[in-house]
Amino acid sequence: xxxxxxxxxxxxxxGGSSIEFRDSDLPCIGLLQEAELIQILQDESTRLRRRxxxxxxxxxxxxxxxxxxxxxxxxxKDTHRKExxxxxxxxxxxxxxxxxxxxCGSLMQAxxxxxxxxxxxxxxAHLRATEAVDLLVAVLSDPREEFQHRLDSALALGDxxxxxxLEPLLVARHDALIQLKSDTRRALAKMFYxxxxxxxxxxRLLGLSDLKASIDQYPRDLEWFPDGRLCSWEE
Length: 235
Fold this sequence. Notes:
The protein is mostly helical and 235 residues long. The chain is built from 13 helices and no strands. It folds into 2 domains: 32-127, Alpha Horseshoe (Leucine-rich Repeat Variant), CATH 1.25.10; 129-235, Leucine-rich Repeat Variant, CATH 1.25.10. Helix 4 runs parallel beside helix 6, helix 5 packs parallel to helix 7 and helix 7 runs parallel beside helix 9 (147-160). The model is unreliable at 21-25 (pLDDT under 50).
């Protein structure tokens, strides 16, 4: 099988658990080639958990050839069924690792996926997909949207760092939801340091008393999160 397990019993090559593979003759997915992984992902007769591992592995070893198969998972109405959500989530993260225009398009569609929306937004943030800014602003600004959708969108906009998000984030920091207030301030603090803002825009942020603590805190947060991402997934 050629699995290599860490102390938690997780395979370092494919992410599977020792419990799952202990009595299995399945080869480690981490040793398979891209074409073989795509075939596993697309084969609906294959055990679902193995398809999930293939989707995850494609994000690490796959290239542009893997994008259509991963997009097909996200675009399929079948993955709206709850038992398929993990497969859609793994596909979203892998598209975020591979990138490209087609991947971004599917990820933007998946912002409204019932099970993969969170990972889709994380992936768009990871790609700093400026084409998604208007969509994420709409989600952030709509009080009818799910609470978690709006939180994810606020942080993603901070990571993307496009100036078009500045005004919507400033408005959202007054929202009735306490956590949304906090997350929009974190997003604005990151934009202060990392986005291409004018001096006038930066001075405006500095002049807002409720933002000063977040702006002062951001450099200290880098001690814990050196890559500076507000949105991240476990590697």
